[in-house]
Structure prediction request, 299 residues.
Amino acid sequence: MTTAVDTDLYGVVEDAAAYLYVWALKDIPQDLRDALADAAARETSIPGQRVLNTILKNVQVADDGGNLVCQDTGIAVYTCRVGERFPLHPVRIYQALKAGTERATIEHPLRSNSVHTLTRENTGPNTGYRLPIVHWEFIPDWDGLDVKCVPKGSGSENMSFLKMCVPADGVKGIKQFVLESIVGAGGKPCPPGIVGVGIGGSADYAMYLAKEAIARPIGTRNADPHVAKLEEELFQLLNETGIGPMGLGGDVTVLNCHIEHADTHMTLNPVAVNYQCWAARRASAHIGSNGDVDYDREA
Ligand code: SF4
Prediction:
């Protein structure tokens, strides 16, 4: 049975999804703006400087015109943290997120990227079978809902890699795979961006963790000191590769490296890499059980 509260909250979540998708595409977060400005200030190669200054100008033009920072509207990926007492069932939350994605695409309008994987026919306004993608986390003893929208462009998503290292490969094997992946990707994922790394768990979970890692505010460090140390080390090493902005050579290959981890089987050592381009778009909303929405620029 649909209650009045359900109906209201459905509309609130739909509105939030429509707003978040467009907001993320147009107005990049302050930490990303700062990281790009800092990159432009420390880049010493002339082509690299030109690329970074063009990116900064691109962001300014988007701000001035109320336009998108990149034409690739990506795949809408949402992460939902659902309180156990939030009074709208996850089935209805998913429907609302899908409806909001469709509405944003039609009303703005946005480019629709979704196709059937085999026929390549368009499947809807950035929706389709299992699109948008939604990741779920359920929070005990809470009545709220957090929604984060991370539109993921294909240039960077195509540069995703997984390796099932063996335990004997150790941390050295993890570092080697991350470096090989980013060197192999070169300019394809529109660098400099955020390198997300997922370690541990299983093959599928490591890739999920890598995607979680790219959605964090830039330069935040993992709470586990061992993981944070590896983040810092990889960040330095990746910037020594010389790939530079858009692969044209330079000091700034990545804006940062974030790692998420899970404990794993004693005979496993999975490593996943998910790249996020310079247009590292994300936007969040906190929705209360009474329907109040607090949009959050920096989460
Ligand atoms: S990878 Fe990012 S910056 Fe490059 S085209 Fe795609 S969305 Fe745009």
Q: What stands out?
A: The longest strand covers residues 254-262. The chain has a mean pLDDT of 96.
